[in-house]
Structure formats: C-alpha cells, structure tokens
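quick one, two chains, predict together pls
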Amino acid sequence: MSDLLEQLRAYGRQIEADFGVDAAEGPAPAESGSVVGGSRSVPRSRRSALVLVAAATAAVVFGTSLLLPASPPNGGSTDDSSRFALGTCLSAAACTSPGTGVVGQPSAGTTAPATAQAAPRLFDGSPEIGPGTYGFVLQGVPMEITVPAGWVRHEDFYLTAGPEETSDGFVSFLDVTDVYIDPCNWSAGKAGIGPAVDDLVAGLQAQRHTVTSTPKPLNVAGFAGTELTISIPADVDLSACYLGVYALWTIAVDGPLDRQIDSQPGTSATVWILDVNGKRAVISVGSDDPASTTSAQITEMLGSLKSG
Amino acid sequence: MTPGMTFLLLLSYGPPRNGTDGCERGTLIPVAAVTDEFAEFVASAEPRLRVALASAFGFDVAEDATAEALAFAWEHWDRVLASDNPVGYVFAVGRNTVRRSLRRRPPRLPEVRSAEMPWIEPGLPSALGRLSERQREVVMLLHCFQWTLSEVAEVLGMSKGTVQVHERRGMVRLRRDLGCGDV
C-alpha cells in the first residue's frame, strides 16, 4: 500500500476536483489555469510543480513557482548577524514528508519541458536527493540546478541541508502571494500586495517588526529583480503573537488556501525577488553560519542555476 | 449560486452593526467600510469554513452549513468582530448548526475512485469516517488539503499543540484501522 500521507493527499485532490473546494470563488482571479482534477499517482504537492501555474485566487491558490538566481546569494548582502534559519518551514505536518526509501536520482542534464506532464525532477520523489543536476520548471521556464550530497527536498518548494530537524541551511523557491501587515498580529490581515516585484519589496518594507535591508537590483539568468535581506528581530515575543506565530507571508501552493509561512525571531534570510517573464518568483535562502560548508554549498547551488 | 455569491449580494446592504454610523443593530444600510470589511471576511473565510465543515461532517452538508454560519456572521457582525478569532467563531456556529441537524450521523465522505487511483486504499474514506470528529477535521485539513498547523488551529479554534495531539492520535488510529504500519 502506498504511503498513507500520499494517499491522503491524493484523496484530498480528488475531493477538491469533485467538489470544487478549491474552485476560484474568491475575488482575485486566477492568473492562469488552476489545477483541478486528478492526475493519478502524483501527489498534489508534486503536481503543483509539474504544472507550474502560479494561479492565485483570494482563497484558492495553486502552483509553486521555482526560480533561479545566477549569482551566489550570499555575496555580501546578508546581515552579519544573520542566522539564516528563517522559518521556511511551516507546520509540523507540512514538513514531515515521509520517504519511500528510494533516493532520488538526478536528471541526465536534460531540461524539463514546461508542461504538466514533464516532471520537475528536483521535487519529484522521496525526500532524499542524490547529488547531481536536476531539472525543474520556474514559472514556465525550464531550469537546472546542481545539488550537492546530503540535501533533502521537502514538498515541492524547498531543500534543506540534511534532515530538517538538524539542518543548518535551506534553499526555497516560493510564489509569494501576499505579506502580512503585522506578522505578529497577523489576524489583522494581509497587505494585499500587487503582482510586481516592487509590490513585494514595498510590502516587506512596510511590514511591522520585520527589518529589511536596502534593496539592490539583481539580474539572474536574464531575469531582473531585487535582492534584500529580511530579519526578524530577536526581541519579538512569540507568546504575544496571534496563535504564537510570526507569520511573514503567504505562498501559493497546490491546495485550497495559500500557505502561511512563519518565521522565528532572531532569524534572517536573503531573498531574491525576480520578474520571470512577467511573473514574480522568490528565492529565499539562509544558513546558520555564513562561513559554514552549508553556506558555501548554497552559494554553489544558486550559482549553478541556469535556464534550460 | 454559491454561498460566496449569496453574500456578495447581501453585501449591497451591509451587515447590521451596532453603533456604527449611529445605526442600531438590525438596520440594513449601505456602509462601504463595513461591507468591505465583511466582504473581505467572507472572501477569506468562506472557502476555509466550507472545507473544514466538509472534513468534519461530509461534503453533502458543508455548503449549507457554511452559508448558515456566514448568515449568522452577517446578522451578528459585532459579535463576530469582538471575537478573538472570528473565523473560528463562525466555524463553531457552522458546526453547531450541523450537529443540530444531523444528530450524529456518520459523515458522508466521497468514495475513492479506485479505477483512477488503485493505489489508494478504498477503505480510506470509511476509516476517516470512523475517526473522532476532531481527529478527522485535523487529519483531513492537514493531510488531504495541506493546511498549515496555524490555519487549522485558527479555524478550529484550538491551539497548535491540541491540533498536533488530534493529528497524532488520528493518524495512529487511521494506520491501525487500515493496517499500515509505516508513516
């Protein structure tokens, strides 16, 4: 019998297709075709990456964006104090992706076609991922990235250096849909940012508590964007935050709702916000120690990104 | 017509709100700020309420229960706003509505389309149905619909720790019921 969690995801996908629980009923229109319906054995979270649709509705968002920077991320732009363990990770449930014991194999240098059927191999398979070059699709653009040994993939949008519980670094590819006005009192609502790179930059700069560095222009594999560092002050008292969560922003995932991404006080991350053929994509990376092997690996990984 | 559409129509009048613009409760007036506020709430809460109620009680009742809960919210907007957790408050309203009408009948969850997905255990919906209401809500929201712990906690009106407890117990029971030893 297949993994129970995978079965639950697939069952949820069937329900969503049958009952339209993720149908676009909110006010914000989907950017492009929503993924509804049933691919068979591809878990929902995987399928989002397959289709690469950054479809967003007010309450329904599908798709995961993946993108690429061409230059190393840590190039002097990070805070000295940054402990990059920004809470890429979301909930316990979201982060526990059981493996099947089969280590993923890298692609043979091929690029993934930007179709729903072309598996973005980077996030297709068990959590364990062998070293090598993997193909994936970023906002419709075929990409490749070289992953060193020891990294683990989670869901369809982020990698950690080793198991998440002990990881000291991460690389995440996000389709950020909105930012909370006040990440601590996040029940007060989101900013309602627009779709452009600058909209997200402005949203982060205006966000309460979160500290942002001066934005710098960035050009990655031909895609223009902005680089900045975001830091969560160490003196934020989570116990005073709504539900004990510092909710930074939301991302598009293949599910009935945008996914909330929360962070921990005292952490920071380097963020690239890119305009990928008119679609915004975010890559967020961090490591506990900028001088660590993990940090160097992140730099190499991001430096290896190229469009197919 | 979906519940969301229904409420968008109602919004042309706006929910009654005590003390707002000098109007007494129950007075239907067009107040842009209030309608925007309520529209925003509906847009945000309605899909979540529907999925959460469906997970708890089945999809055959979720639409109506959500509509009734939002109707309550519209009529008692002050009370909802005063709540620490408006969406959780409205979810509780919907849940009570269903409980009153269903009298504890088992939830009706859709069957697995085994011809399309033979790798899914056909008994999964039944096993989910045998979980406690809370366990089923949590397991389905987290794992079928991939909500975050925070989202589940907010809508169900419980702490994240409590969500985790229900999830853990629900998954243990589900695994035992389905005869799978892993995960």
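The CA atoms of residues 35 and 50 of chain B lie 21 Å apart.
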